[in-house]
Specification:
By secondary structure, the protein is mainly alpha-helical. It folds into three domains: 63 residues, Helix-hairpin-Helix base-excision DNA repair enzymes (C-terminal) (Endonuclease Iii, domain 2), CATH 1.10.1670.10; 101 residues, Orthogonal Bundle (Endonuclease III, domain 1), CATH 1.10.340.30; 51 residues, no CATH class. It contains 14 helices and no strands. The structure holds iron/sulfur cluster.
């Protein structure tokens, strides 16, 4: 399945836009209860206005709130971002720290966020257990755990460390595009052969194909061998 996921999503990546660890930390805080797309609409102006942790720490609250308002929960997020900026200045000389222990000690940074920062800004392998990741690995029988930390450890034992970050992206991509929470596209899923949960969603290929989302849809349907998709049309001549 790990190999199939790599075939399905060779270019999987963090879908938040950022240029440095601080921007990523802020973007992840903004992504709570909000789509990555919406966050990416807000961050160019935000990152142009605030460039350092000190900038966030000393921000004008009303101005910061206004900039991030479209992401929802903007008052809480403003508190979190200002506190984060202050802590990075006070405890780490303005640099986002590079270890899980130091990151999770920062306000607003949980284990999931810390792993996103380590994996994507610092190239330290990390498993990001979000709601998609947890749901999919349970569907695949990789673990029965529901606690994110236990899931992280269970999957960490199954998959080589160097693959953790890319695996996280790929699993999350599959959760967003194919293996949805309520109606997974089982009949159009390239993992169906290996998936013990095949059938929790529609198994009819045409019906399932309509549930697949995202820019890679044609590639994903072809991999799954859905009739009428690019590959099968090509094979038919
Ligand atoms: S077969 Fe269904 S449950 Fe299994 S990974 Fe695919 S979409 Fe998800």
């Amino acid at each position: 399945m790990v190999r199939s996921l790599a075939e399905g999503y060779p270019d999987a990546h963090c879908e938040l836009d950022f240029r440095n660890p601080l921007e990523l930390a802020v973007a992840v805080i903004l992504s709570a209860q909000c789509t990555d797309k919406r966050v990416n609409e807000v961050t160019p102006a935000l990152f142009a206005r605030y460039r350092t942790a000190a900038d966030y720490a000393g921000a004008d609250r009303a101005e910061l709130e206004e900039l991030i308002r479209p992401t929802g929960f903007f008052r809480n997020k403003t508190n979190a971002i200002m506190a984060l900026g202050a802590a990075i200045v006070d405890k780490h000389g303005g640099e986002v720290p590079r270890t899980l222990a130091d990151l999770v000690a920062l306000p607003g940074i949980g284990r999931k966020t810390a792993n996103v920062i380590l994996g994507n800004a610092y190239d330290v392998p990390g498993i990001t257990v979000d709601t998609h990741f947890g749901r999919l690995v349970r569907r695949w029988g990789w673990t029965a755990e529901t606690d994110p930390v236990k899931i992280e450890h269970a999957v960490g034992e199954l998959v080589p460390r160097k693959e953790w970050t890319m695996l996280s992206h790929r699993v999350i991509f599959h959760g967003r595009r194919v293996c949805h929470s309520r109606k997974p596209a089982c009949g159009a899923c390239f993992l169906a052969r290996d998936c013990p949960s095949f059938g929790v969603g529609p198994t009819d290929p045409a019906e399932a194909a309509r549930l697949v989302r995202g820019p890679e849809t044609a590639h994903l349907l072809a991999l799954a061998g859905v009739p009428g998709s690019a590959t099968t049309r090509g094979a038919a001549g």
